[in-house]
Batch of 4 targets.
Target 1
Amino acid sequence: MIAAVSWVPKGASKAVPEEAQLPSKEEIEEMIKSGSLEEESEYGHSEDDDEDMGSEDVEQIDEVSQALAVADALGKSSKSKSSGTKLDDIADGLKELDMDRYDDEDEGVELFSKGIGDLYYPSNQMDPYLKDKDDEDSEDLEDLVINANDAVIVCARNEDDVSHLEVYVYEEANDGEVNLYVHHHVIIPAFPLCMAWLDCPLNGGEKGNFMAVGSMEPSIEIWDLDIIEEVQPCLSLGGINEDKKMKNKKNKKGKKSSIEYKEGSHTDSVLGLAWNKEFRNILASASADKTVKIWDVVEGKCTFTLEHHTDKVQAIAWNHYAPQVLLSGSFDHSVVMKDARISTHSGFKWTVTSDVESLAWDPHTEHSFVVSLEDGTVKGFDIRTTKSDQFSDSQPSFTLHAHDKAVCSISYNPLVPNLLATGSTDKMVKLWDLSNNKPSCVASRNPKAGAIFSISFSEDSPFFLAIGGSKGNLEVWDTLSDAAVSHRFSSYSKRGKV
């Protein structure tokens, strides 16, 4: 399944991503000294276990643990941690294999010589076999390059218990043909639930190309999309304290040990993320632990924790025009707005009829937002009608019975005012014209993606809608190809970047 989709702005990705560097022998030794490779691991054993096994068994397990610990340091395993690794033996073995020269031919060995001297070509271009190989290598290198005009889409995907980010390139040829392919994968350790792209320069420079990922774990991982074959996030926010981690298993007295979290961490799944485009070091998160947290990604720590909801917080969004204003929606059937510009502001609260699935500020006005619900409805609100007290009794601007099942995702078109897309577990994607607070359906489509979990309009090509769902297939709908959409909104296409 695809749980979330996100567009990367054109030109934000490096033309040729870097390859991840494996740690050196010295770095591995430093990990061991610092305690990063702990003595007890999922593959190791504790002293209590030694009582139930012979010395030979213990010795064999120690050898396996040592090997897996080194594999973890080299990025081959994300779980194993151990100590006492035989670094010298492994280094000597790799040196003996000489993998860098594995394909080199041995001098003086002629397996297929005819005895009259082998024919050769003055250059690779004249050798038909090597020429074909060079052409293949050239094509592979060309596929690796991300051009400035290429659109990049990232999918948070789970398949066969493997979770990863798929980085797609959406390439438009001059003849109008479209090529959509996976550029590279990023393996992540936990089931992904949400994403947020950010360009805060965590690795130096003026801007970066990062994806924050929320998952079933309490931590938020931030991955550098310009590095391929990376096995570790460049930054983790919150999570379980590995230095003081105590496994959830029964001890001899039959009691379970507790989990200790890092300072400021969520204590349950992260369900929603929102990056602040104006204050680029700020990331907001919503969690099943009923809290909303504000993070400084440069400092790598939580700066504020908001506890204004009484149930899981599913969705969160910053206002486009007032970046200090934050909106959050919860399973407690409420939407709350907080304004950090006013220190005494206790927040405004709107009550809705069902669990909040998604919400979004209108990018064309600072006063309006929409919220989608588990019962298939979409409601619009205007904050100018809100009273001065915390609990607002103001009625929604409109209530739209959009789908037969939960509306998991909504997306405003960044170019066309009042054009909203909705995606539902009823497998349908619909486009709505919200003009004058009287919604009308412009187009609907079953993209064959299964239950729809995430949709997103592109900022660079505003009529392209990325769609992800339960079948795990990324779909891109050129909504302008629909006759009704083209008839009503074609005038905007001349002003946009399509």
Note: The mean pLDDT is 81.
Target 2
Amino acid sequence: MTDFLYQYPTLYPGILLKRYKRFFVDVELATGEVVTAHCPNTGPMTGVCAVGSAVYLSSSDNPNRKLRYTLEMIEVHDNGATWAGVNTSLPNRVVNLALAKKLIPELGNYHQIRFEVPYGVDRKSRIDFLLTGNESEKPIYVEVKNTTWVQGNLTLFPDTVTTRGQKHLRELMALLPEADSVMLYFINRGDCPYFAPGDSADPVYGVLFREAIALGVRVLPCRFEVSPLGIRYLGLAELKL
């Protein structure tokens, strides 16, 4: 279908048997074969890694790979059955496609998209996207964070203490007012219309999050519908503070 921002390659259905050492999952395929797949998500995957859940895997023919399969999505049941994307290498690729099509009007006017641009006091950090337009317009710095943690119909970030995430909020605040700073949350499931900071998981992040908004950092909680066919952009979630 033409409205998919991203279309998956052929996926293989299975049932999650276990996750271990963060990077590995054992999955029973529909054929009955049990395989070990790469789990491309280093986080705790709070609420989206239940044994017995339906999953989909992608497959690679690269002979240099140790594991043929990659975990792409897990079925969750917080608000009825829905798919949650767990491959954290995809959000930036999908956001890039959305930026190229200018599907997020809240970002404002830009003509050029740059990736992984050094910034910050020591220039050791890299912003996910730097958007620029005319010389008279401020550059737009966009940091992307992936989330699948929900409570009811409320999506939350983070689901664990993240000193790196805290640092990114501080760096976005430091760019003001010379630049336009944006924190874009990639909500990797389509069942939650609301978004809030995960105060219970990281209280410091919650404080910095509200401070950043007060100073002028813009927060864009972007909702994406995930299915075995592809990923669609659904628009913004409503921010709850």
Note: The chain has three helices and 17 strands.
Target 3
Amino acid sequence: MSIKLSIVSTDPLSVDADVAVIGVPEGASTKEGILADLERALGPVVAKAVKREDFTGKKDQTLDLHTNDAIKASRVLLIGLGKATLADADVRLLASKGARFALGAKAESLAIVLPEGTSGSGAVRAAAEGVVLGSYRFNAFQTGDRLPKVQLSRATLVARSKVAKADRDAMALGQKIGESVCIARDLINTPPNELYPEMLARAAQDVAKANNLKVTVFDKAALTKRGMHLFVAVAQGSARDPRMVHMTYTPAKPTKKKIVFVGKGLTFDSGGLCIKPAPGMEEMKGDMGGAANVIALMAAVAAVKPSVEVHGIIGCAENMPDGAAYRPGDIFKSLDGKTVEIINTDAEGRLVLADCLAYARSLKPDLILDNATLTGACVVALGTTVSGYYSNRDELADAFRRAAKTAGEATWHMPLVEELREGLKSDWADLKHTADRWGGSITAALFLREFVGDVPWIHVDIAGPSMANKAYGIYPKGGTGHGVLTFLQLIDQLASS
């Protein structure tokens, strides 16, 4: 159920809501500002709670106050904002935390007070995104008593200045963007018996139809005919045939700029003949996080309507270990002609991506960006909340860093260490697809680079943050959609350059 959003300009303590969320800058006291207003409205209980919890507005501090019907809101959640100047990403985070708190409080209505010092459509859009992202739940497969008894159905953004049409438009756009990110979350969380390659492709088609995007789906026969033998090989062991999806957004006015996003869509990765250990294998339903991000991004692009042409390419396959499965020692020819020796069938994602990248290159884009839950090595290097990214252009890496910072998503620039390229040399083919264990995320990126030619390219390894084992920031437990907001910001940067 879509949450109903509205925006008003009024006294923050006069809004009728089950929960009101208010950001408090560091250094606040009950003698001035919002804490003083609350003290006057609720009495000495505020000062006692502030003293007891040592609440001073430090970043990420929270204070939950029950109002006992002294004001219209039943509860007030104060969230510390710290000392730094607030960016739109901070507003999104505040709204997301507030919405998640409201879910836990079994609230039906929520008010988010836009912090002092933030104004304009950017902050409004970010707050709307945050409400949607923070209120996300996935309960498509729960029944009976497992279903939530109460839904957060209404949220009000409280502005400190007069509300204009631009603010209402920004709120509506923010809601659409938040809902787009949630498409990725839903897809990642869907079990693999329900979401196999054909169904992932169908989900992309549904998104394209709903957003007036062009879409083409290639089946196994079409992939084979094109010469995408690496891609097809990965799917050989599965009863489910592979699919490749090509989604296209074309702006209203002709443009010379073209960006292609590529996503790895392994709807389940058993490891193939090099089978994974059983503990944790259930999480491999999320090995299509990159594809989910691309589908979600295309929905967001349709809402934002940038002045650049955007393509989304997703490779959908299932990696299983039956008698037809590809083997270590096999050699296959890729779409761009290079032959590849298979070393480890559990390194399947880069094979699918290699052919998808070669296909993307044929579109003659200004930029190719791929994202994938590609390597455990990246998680070892950066942890579970940070994506690593690589680029064959320093200026592109700088642009991506700025986009991620603006979006508020954690990423880190990783090096393409040329010395490690030696590990991809094969005695029997043009390339091996894996090298030594050490620097595994880097050698995976180096392998992918072989298939982009001279096209400007960014590779994002989202293996850590694509799924979360607990809620944090703007992300829920399970599928996160980490990266979509950064990609959208990057498009905006490139469109305006």
Note: Residues 165-189 form the longest helix (25 residues).
Target 4
Amino acid sequence: MNYISTRANYEQVSAAEAIRLGMVPTGGLFVPEKVPTFSQEEIYRMKEDSYQNIAYKILERYLTDYTDEELKDVIRSAYNDTNFDHADIAPIIKLDDKLYILELWHGPTAAFKDMALQLMPHLLIKALAKVKLDKEILILVATSGDTGKAALEGFKDVEGVKIVVFYPQGGVSEVQERQMLTTGGNNTEVIAVEGNFDDCQSVVKDIFGDDHFKELISKNGYQFSSANSINWGRLLPQIIYYFATYAYLLRDGEIKEGDKINISVPTGNFGNILAAYYAYQMGLPVNKFICASNDNKVLTDFFKTGIYDINRDFKQTISPSMDILISSNLERFLFEMTGHDADKINSYYESLNEEGKFAIDEDTKIAINDLFVGEYATEEETQKTITQVFNKFDYTLDTHTAVGVKAYQEYQKEVGDNIVAVIDSTANPYKFSKAVLESLQDIEEENEFKILKELEELTGLEIHRGLQGLEKMEIKHNRSCHSKEIREEIKEILEIE
């Protein structure tokens, strides 16, 4: 299995090389040259497998330059009862006969990013050995909240790797910020950036394509890589839990072999829902993908109109991990939907860079709309959904999962199908405790850590282990800069001129 650029501007590379590089050095993203497939019988038999066994079956199809023992080793290191507090790793919770929640937050940092970032560091370390790199890896991460802590936790104290995380100052929850700022490790740096997530992400992507800066970094013994979902090694592990979802539903008798399911994903950078689409390409029986957005609804508008337009106000919301206007993984999706037409991708993204928007052709729009719908939830609708689900099912949603539920309700209202639906729950509700508690009752308390306790008393849901005692932990990072100063900040961290 080789990997190619979405813009046809780079030679084919192995899986290890794609993971090491992070993104295409000349611009664009790596994708598999051909998506492997399972027979329906192979998918049905997964109901007898553990999460770990399902993971192996997925990874071996894509990581053909890794040995069986290497794959088994990285899976054992990632998906175990030390890192995850549930035997299913990503359990399915039934709300009613047709509605299920896929809990993706049972890892160490209480967010779905753990599902990939507990595995990815092990893949990267083995990749470095394969390509015999003599430089230290410098991982740059732009985060809208959850990726930062999950990446820090995954790469903390990993030999041969230094990780620098950039987050929008004032653009994450207090809990998310404290999680990042209290991270230990002798190879971690966290920087608050004046600007929004798109500012952070755009600069990081520019750095990856800056030959002069890369040469400077290389001369000083470093090689860039990424832990964002622009890195195939971050995206690939997310495919696993969609196959596990279908297997668990079969195992528990909630669906029959061959039944299709709907999947609703609260979406920011488009990686999580793209992983579901890759699972579909591999044979997973899916009826519709519901791409759920908050008030930054650039994706909702795109699915409805075929025009991707970032010329709009950026809004800070109570679901900050989705406060994104430039969804990087949409490029991979469009590459797949256009039949690997790199000319179209180049045209789209030249237009995005020059005009802040692009329009896809009608044939591509029709193909997308056969599978995908875009829906969104306002702030008020998000909070009402949290209230409704708690009152009806005694289940506590976070502010992102609530967007996924509301978007699915809107889709069902329009279409009226009666197919089993799975909603991705991307974060534990305690990560956004203030907004969740405000949805359930009037509050006067402003201290987010006292609010954790109040939410626990109200809901009976135990505070996630990764958040317990967080307010008492020592702050270890205090860097900040403007987005235009990120390069200088990196040079200062590495002590280079």
Note: The longest helix spans residues 232-251.
